[in-house]
Backbone:
């Protein structure tokens, strides 16, 4: 088959593979290019901590998880929804279930198992894989250029190109954001990459850092600006990690751009109102150590008590009213977010103003973009993979439309 009759998908993550699925199912000859030696490396990493594929909540709140891009995602998700994703997975032989938190996971299959079935299916439909091919931009004729393993520059004259190059966290998986100058040089507006769903840094004392790194703070509430999140948090050598921290990391990151440190408030006793805590604290006898008393009366753990000692002036701990205040509103000075490379996802990339409703770049007709390389962010909970799958699906449908190919819903 002549190359001109083929379409190129660049990036073999969930977005690119979903796009290749739609395109090959429509009968197009598809070539996938990836800079790495294999596909879906970040998808495999996501599988390590329990592969959270999507979420079961209703369309409206689901789209709301994409923050400033909620309206855009409302439309995109209408074309490929969480239910569509689960139905598609069922078609692959992958059953899913809804966990207690509403998150959707595979019943039995692992990320590696899903990837294998998926890649095998693409192979059977004639999709060709070109690994260790790093996208280098476009030739004068508009064809994508790739640097091969042998150091050769390959020009691949394709009918249309779909870029799904990922964000810029976990660069070891291939999504290193090194493509940004290539699109910027074509006048495409990009927002700089920033960490999303990441840990935060607190300047612990040496004593606290060495004694409490790795210890949990259980069932606490975190607040910053108008956001709050509950759950378990882990103390690390650098600060804090864990679900509630990731949930607030976007708002903390944005505030850190204007002020430093940012106060994050911790409620260490969610189950009791401040007044009840104060009453209990007033019954303390002088000879009893505060640590013991708090453990017995309020079930306060060692790490939580030591955190109070780390943050509060000593005289505040002696006074029931001020101590009760700190237990409910401990003000933690956050000095930074953890680096982009460590974050679960990234904000930034190609802005939605650069693409049309079919995710085609306005400045580069015939070039479509999908996945985390677009400037959106969402919390953990399955919204990231759903965002990648949905934009991959919709960009591929956009390409079919642009090529004048029938776009019967698949
Ligand atoms: C630790 C961790 C856990 C996660 N857990 C979950 C989870 O449970 N649920 C969830 O929803 N999300 C999770 N995610 C996020 C999810 O994995 C990503 O959002 C998703 O992989 C993004 O898909 P993508 O296709 O846009 O990009 P990627 O998966 O990053 O794929 C991009 C591909 O493009 C290739 N590429 C990049 N540049 C070039 C170039 N110049 N030339 C050629 N190829 C290139 C890369 O090699 C890569 O294969 C997790 C992420 C991490 C890091």
Residues:
């Amino acid at each position: 088959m002549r190359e001109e009759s083929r379409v190129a998908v660049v990036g073999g993550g969930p977005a690119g593979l979903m796009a290749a699925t739609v395109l090959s199912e429509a009968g197009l000859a598809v070539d996938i290019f990836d800079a790495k030696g294999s596909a879906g490396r970040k998808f495999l990493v996501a599988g390590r901590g329990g592969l959270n594929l999507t979420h079961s909540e209703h369309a409206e709140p689901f789209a709301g998880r994409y923050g400033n891009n909620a309206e855009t995602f409302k439309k995109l998700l209408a074309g490929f929804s969480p239910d569509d994703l689960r139905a598609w997975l069922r078609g692959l032989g992958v059953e899913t279930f809804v966990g207690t938190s509403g998150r959707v996971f595979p019943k039995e299959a692992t990320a590696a198992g899903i990837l294998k079935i998926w890649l095998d299916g693409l192979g059977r439909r004639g999709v060709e894989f070109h690994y260790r091919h790093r996208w280098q931009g476009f030739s004068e004729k508009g064809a994508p250029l790739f640097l091969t393993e042998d150091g050769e520059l390959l020009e691949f004259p394709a009918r249309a190109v779909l870029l799904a190059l990922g964000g810029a966290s976990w660069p070891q998986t291939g999504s290193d954001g090194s493509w940004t100058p290539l699109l910027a040089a074509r006048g495409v507006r990009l927002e700089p990459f920033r960490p999303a769903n990441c840990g935060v840094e607190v300047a612990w004392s040496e004593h606290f850092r060495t004694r409490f790194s790795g210890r949990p703070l259980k069932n606490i509430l975190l607040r910053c600006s108008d956001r709050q999140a509950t759950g378990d948090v882990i103390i690390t050598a650098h600060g804090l990690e864990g679900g509630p921290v990731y949930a607030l990391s976007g708002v903390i990151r944005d505030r850190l751009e204007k002020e430093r440190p940012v106060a994050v408030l911790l409620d260490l006793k969610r189950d009791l109102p401040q007044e009840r805590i104060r009453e209990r604290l007033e019954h303390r006898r002088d000879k009893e150590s505060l640590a013991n008393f708090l453990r017995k009366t309020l079930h306060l753990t060692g790490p939580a008590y030591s955190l109070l000692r780390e943050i509060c002036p000593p005289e505040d701990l002696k006074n029931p009213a001020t101590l009760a205040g700190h237990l409910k509103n401990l003000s933690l000075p956050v000095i930074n977010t953890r680096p982009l490379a460590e974050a679960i996802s990234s904000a930034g990339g190609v802005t939605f103003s650069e693409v049309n409703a079919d995710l085609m770049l306005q400045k580069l007709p015939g070039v479509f973009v999908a996945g985390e390389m677009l400037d959106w962010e969402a919390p953990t909970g399955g919204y990231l993979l759903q965002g990648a799958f949905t934009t991959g699906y919709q960009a591929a449908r956009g390409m079919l439309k642009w090529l004048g190919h029938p776009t019967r819903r698949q």
Observations:
- Residues 10-16, 33-36, 41-43, 45-46, 49, 51-52, 134-135, 164-166, 169-170, 174-175, 178-179, 344-345, 371-372, 382, 384-385, 388 surround flavin-adenine dinucleotide (CB under 6 Å).
- The radius of gyration is 25 Å.
- The first helix runs from residue 14 to 25.
- Residues 200-337 form one domain.
